[in-house]
Amino acid sequence: MQQNKSDVWVGLFVLIGAAALVFLALQSANLLSLNFQKTYTVTARFDNIGGLKPKAAVKSAGVVVGRVESITFDDQTFQANVAMNMESRYLFPKDSSLKILTSGLLGDQYIGIEAGASEENLKAGDRVTATQSAVVLENLIGQFLYGKAEQGSGGNAAGAGAGGKE
């Protein structure tokens, strides 16, 4: 009988440990967010969202103030519509601006919100119009390489012209 009791307790602790590992894995991957705060939904349009995903954080001053609810594509404007659930305890002015930022050099993307100066606050259903799209690393590298190639070919022509005058 003592052996059966020990087996039950060991089995129980193994199950609790496994459940804790699953919970931590889902939390760290932003696949599970347990938030019991009241929220309000605001939307914004971006030209390019990069690698932004649903459930990504919405941060202000480094503090998570909401989460991305959904991302859809508008085939009329060819922009991405992003719906965000903002915690109702955080109020932002209507003229606030949104940027898609990256945590770290190659980390996850999130939305950064900078508060504006308007007297009126955002409320459920509002659309934020001041947005800045994600910086795409491939585009930056391409611009850098194209600029260097252009500068290199222009520099040689200028050097040859200057050398010919002497």
Written account of the structure:
- The chain is α/β, with parallel strands linked by helices and 166 residues long.
- The protein folds into two domains: 1-32; 36-142, no CATH class.
- 34% of the residues lie in helices and 30% in strands.
- The chain contains two helices and eight strands; from the N terminus they run αββββββββα.
- It has helices at residues 2-28, 137-165; strands at residues 39-46, 57-60, 63-74, 79-87, 97-102, 109-114, 127-128, 130-132.
- An eight-stranded mixed beta sheet has the order 7-1-4-3-2-6-5-8, with no helix packed on it.
- The longest helix is centred in the last third of the chain and has 29 residues, at 137-165.
- It is flat.
- Residues 157-166 have low confidence and may be disordered.
Helix and strand arrangement:
Blueprint: H1 2-28, E1 39-46, E2 57-60, E3 63-74, E4 79-87, E5 97-102, E6 109-114, E7 127-128, E8 130-132, H2 137-165
Parallel strand pairs: 1-7, 2-6, 5-8
Antiparallel strand pairs: 1-4, 2-3, 3-4, 5-6
